[in-house]
Amino acid sequence: MPVRQLPEQIVNRIAAGEVVERPASAVKELVENAIDAGASRIDIFTEGGGRRRIAITDDGGGMTQGDLALAVERHATSKLDDEDLLRIRTLGFRGEALPSIGGVARLAITTRHASEPHAWALHVDAGVKSAIAPAALAKGTRVEVSDLFHATPARLKFLKTDRTEAEAIREVVRRLAMARPDIAFSLAGEERAPVTWAAALPGAPGRLTRLGDILGSDFRASAIEVRAEREGVSVEGFAAAPSLTRANALGQYLFVNGRPVRDKLILGAVRAAYADYLPRDRHPVVALFVTLDSQEVDANVHPAKTEVRFRNAGLVRALIVHALKEGLAREGRRTAANTDGAAIMAFRRGDLPRGGWDWRSSPQAPAASTAFSSAAAPTYAAPGFAEAAQAAFDTGAPSADIRANDSPAGDLLDRPLGAARAQIHETYIVAQTRDGLVVVDQHAAHERIVYERLKDSLARNGVQRQLLLIPDIVEMDEATVEKLVARACELEQYGLVIESFGPGAVAVRETPSLLGKANAAALLRDLAEHMAEWDEALPLERRLMHVAATMACHGSVRAGRILKPEEMNALLREMEATPNSGQCNHGRPTYVELKLADIEKLFGRR
Asked: Of 21, 151, 281, 511, which has the fewest beta carbons less than 10 angstroms from its beta carbon?
């Protein structure tokens, strides 16, 4: 078959297959054009998930008659000052969007430039252009796309339902609205209720307002501002506290020079920054904005401009990790309990028998202890406690009660975690603050303390080790023994010295001093389970942190251990002095804080 030049219409349809994959792709290209035109308000309307109609109106600069004629030609653009593709300062620059859309749909453009006496209109139907005619429009540009892919009906088979396509359009507009909080957006259509995002003030407060409007009030309440800059590259934005997580990484947004992109770079950087705070199956919510010289990033690596390539990707990744870690360390004690009222919401109003419930007549009623004998016994459960929540209070005699002692010193009440008052279920410490109470999970709290000590000790002069008089011999299967022995050098950096003891056993000769008398068998089995998930791409630093986290869990105060009052207060003071003490290294909160005002609301006192 001889080589031949393809007709222009076929070329446009081929380009449309790359640029316009679905209705959301057309919306993205047209909204980006409106942003580049300097619009301060953009209105989007769709029908049939965008396949029947897309209408986008902006109040930007508009086009002259001559510009409109060229705009629907292939590779015609106003976005490049010269031929230097290394200096891309706009969202669109390829000059393919309008001719590609016009090649597979019916395209109508009405635009007015400030220098023109009236607007001009142009129609394109499956690549066939009409003559330019006068039209009526006050300002800016209105673009309508109807019967998308009618010129290539095979593409219609690959589209999803109208609702799914409408959701894809919504996600595209959300990302562009997050990137430009200074622009007002409205999105309407038959598949959804209209939504409007007003233009926000400049700076970080305005950006947080827009992010809160899009990502929800829970993100706004838990957002931590992050910022870092080095060598002409700046990273800023907001990251949710570890209390707000998702089951996947779809809540992580990256913007490079104002361009929404999807990049694996952010996934690895965010995972590394949050590694000390979250369980392995949870993902944080972040919105990060990277700004750098246009010559340091290549936006011309994907037809849809959804990916970029950095000249110094290592620097960008390091800045993202540093910015997130610094912000999280600064807000280290924020938990789900004291940021979004989750603890208060657990106490739901429940149905009570008429006349109330006499707890003393219940077969599960505990015998009153001498420490509580002077208190008046309640005759019914206070409204606001669900049955499940009330059952948690059927604890029998308290395991520790400090109220018999003198009232706590005033200086302790003014501390962030207050003064210890009781221990319940040999697991939870109840502390009193000046304006509320705090419930601490003693194991989770001490786990974080031991973990931070291990990290600090390693960073300064290595982990101090204790030599076992008689080595512990731990029997395991041969495959597990091989994995552990292969990582012996990494374990030794944290003070755990092991060696092979035959085909199915490991000898533990030294353990970290911080762990005290550790259960070597349980510790090694947990380490082996974690190592099974490692791969060679996982940095050594992260492997060591996994080892430290596992050791910290085994070296912590266990649930079920009765603590003396002075031990409880000492644990609270250590928590206050320990960074990131709001969560254990598995991502669970270490304490719950209830303000007195919230407690009074539960009991109808407010």
From this structure: 281
